[in-house]
Design brief:
It contains nine helices and nine strands. The protein is an alpha+beta fold. The strands form three sheets. The protein has a four-stranded antiparallel beta sheet, with helices on both faces. Strands 2-1-9 form a three-stranded antiparallel beta sheet. A two-stranded antiparallel sheet has the order 3-8. Strand 6 and strand 7 form a beta hairpin. The radius of gyration is 29 Å and the shape is elongated.
C-alpha cells in the first residue's frame, strides 16, 4: 500500500525496505528493550510513519536554498560512517548536501526546546534516586589457573597451592600474578566491581576479605584462584552537586528530542497525506 505525502509518492517497496532496516536495528538493540517483541504489523506501521516523516523533512530541505560551504561538505564526507565514503566525493555530494540541510532543520527545531532550570534538575534528582545510587564495590586482583575438566581442576589447585607457598615465603602478589597467572595482564588487577559481576564462588570470598588480605585457593567454574583485595568501597548516593551537570545534559537532550518530535508532529498535521 503506497502513501502520497504532499504529492510525493512513497512506494510500498520503499516502506518494506525501511521495515527491514527497523527489524535489523531492533535485533541489534533488543537486549536493552525488555518486553514482548513487536509483531510484523507494528513494525510496518513504524516503517510507514518513518517514511512519511522522512519525506516531509526532505520536502523541507528542497526549499532550503542556503548554500552549503566546501568546508561543511568535506568535513561531513571525512566523518561519514556509512557507504558515502565508498563513493567519489562528487557522486556523494547531492546526498551530503541533503543530509546537511536535514541536520540544519533538526538543529533549528531543537533550539526551540524548553530551557532547563535548576528547579528541573532538583526535581529530576529527587524523583529518580535510583539513578544516583552506587552499590558497594570492591577493588581486587587475582592469580588464576584455568580449568575445564575435573582433571584440569585438580592440576590448577596444585599449581595455586604452590603459588600460595611462594606468597607465604614473601613473594609479591603482583609479581607472581604477572609471572604465573593465566590472566596476568596488569598484575592480575580486576579493577573495581560491584556484587553480581563475578561468579558466586569468587564473590563470596572476595567480599569477605579485608583490604590487603589474600585468600586461600578458591575454586570456581573457571579454575582455581588466589584473590587479593585492595579496597572496599561502600554503597553511596551521589549528592546533587556531583551529578547536576550530567542531569542538565540529560534534560537538555530530552527537551530537544521533544521539541523535534513536536516540530515533526506539526509538519505532519499540516501535510496532505493519502494512503492508497
Amino acid at each position: 500500500m503506497s502513501i502520497t505525502v504532499n504529492g510525493t509518492v512513497i512506494s510500498d517497496e520503499s516502506i518494506e525496505k525501511r521495515m527491514a532496516q527497523i527489524q535489523e536495528q531492533y535485533q541489534q538493540e533488543r537486549p536493552g528493550h525488555p518486553g514482548p517483541k513487536p509483531n510484523e504489523e507494528q513494525m510496518r506501521t513504524w516503517a510507514r510513519h518513518s517514511m512519511v516523516e522522512q519525506t516531509l523533512l526532505r520536502q523541507l530541505t528542497e526549499k532550503d536554498d542556503t548554500p552549503i560551504t566546501t568546508d561543511e561538505l568535506h568535513e561531513f564526507y571525512r566523518n561519514a560512517k556509512d557507504n558515502l565514503q565508498s563513493m567519489p566525493l562528487e557522486s556523494a555530494k547531492p546526498e551530503i548536501e541533503d543530509r546537511l540541510r536535514m541536520n540544519r532543520i533538526m538543529r533549528e527545531a531543537a533550539r526551540k526546546a524548553d530551557a532547563v532550570t535548576e528547579a528541573d534538575e532538583q526535581a529530576f534528582y529527587s524523583e529518580n534516586p535510583h539513578h544516583f545510587e552506587k552499590p558497594e564495590s570492591l577493588h581486587a586482583a587475582h592469580i588464576v589457573k584455568h580449568a575445564k575438566t575435573p582433571v584440569e581442576q585438580a592440576k590448577a589447585l596444585d599449581a595455586i597451592r604452590a603459588i600460595e607457598k611462594e606468597l607465604k615465603a614473601g613473594a609479591a602478589f603482583e609479581a607472581l600474578a604477572t609471572r604465573e597467572s593465566d590472566c596476568g595482564d596488569n598484575n592480575g588487577d580486576l579493577g573495581t566491581f560491584p556484587r553480581g559481576q563475578m561468579v558466586e564462588e569468587f564473590e563470596k570470598v572476595a567480599f569477605a576479605l579485608e583490604p590487603g588480605a589474600i585468600s586461600g585457593p578458591v575454586e570456581t567454574p573457571f579454575g582455581c584462584h588466589l584473590i587479593k583485595v585492595y579496597e572496599h568501597i561502600p554503597a553511596i548516593t551521589e549528592d546533587f552537586a556531583t551529578v547536576q551537570a550530567s542531569i542538565r545534559g540529560h534534560l537538555e537532550q530530552r527537551n530537544q528530542h521533544s521539541a523535534i518530535a513536536e516540530f515533526v508532529r506539526k509538519l505532519r498535521d499540516s501535510a496532505t497525506i493519502v494512503e492508497e
